[in-house]
Amino acid sequence: QLEQAVAEEQTLDMLYDKRRGEDPSERRIDPYGLAYRERFWYVIGFCHLRERLRTFRVDRIRHLSPAGLFFKRPNGFSIRDYIDQQWNYKWEAEEPTVKVHISGKPNIIDYLCHYFNHCLVERRDDEAYFKINVDRADNMLPEFLVSFGTSIQVLEPGNLRTAMAKVAHKLEKYYETNDLP
């Protein structure tokens, strides 16, 4: 329904759960596009309540219905440019930072260098050095990097290696103790 509304430039009414556990709010949006980032889908659009562009997590939408109205997306609007500006990937390199040294298969290193291009300090064929925000490295990076399995190896920092081992151990325990349906 969201994809169709984006394609047809159709205004939507939605019931949206806020992240703070407050009661859901009613919103009317002109959906400009959809984006996937770090395990979640988002809809970016003009919010009639706030009278500006907003980003909404799709999994927090409780109800969605056509408003019977249509809109015109602004000329030259780019979801990619908006996301780059709004989520400002550069915050990942903001101080305080930690140096992350990763080795691995060249194609995976290519991917990581593209993904963290704003954090890249040095690149070699099968390894790269990144300067990544400490909070980001501590809270999000271990799960993300574990998803590459044995295609990469984190060489430093040691606490990131330890955090990744904990994530992998948690996954191991999960699959050892949970029966298939």
Q: What structural class do helix, strand and pairing data support? A: alpha+beta
Distance between the termini: 30 Å
- Write out the strand line-up for the largest beta sheet, numbering strands in chain order: 4-3-2-1-5
Q: How many E-type strands?
A: 9
Helix content range of the residues, please? 25-40%
Low-pLDDT residue spans: none
Whole-number mean pLDDT: 89
Count of alpha/pi helices? 6
What would your notes on this structure say?
- The protein is α+β, with helices and mostly antiparallel strands and about 180 residues long.
- The chain contains six helices and nine strands.
- It has helices at about 1-10, 80-85, 105-115, 135-140, 140-145, 160-175, and strands spanning about 10-15, 25-35, 40-45, 50-55, 60-70, 95-105, 120-125, 125-135, 150-155.
- The strands form two sheets. Strands 4-3-2-1-5 form a five-stranded antiparallel beta sheet, sandwiched between helices.
- A hairpin with a 4-residue loop joins strand 3 (about 40-45) and strand 4 (about 50-55).
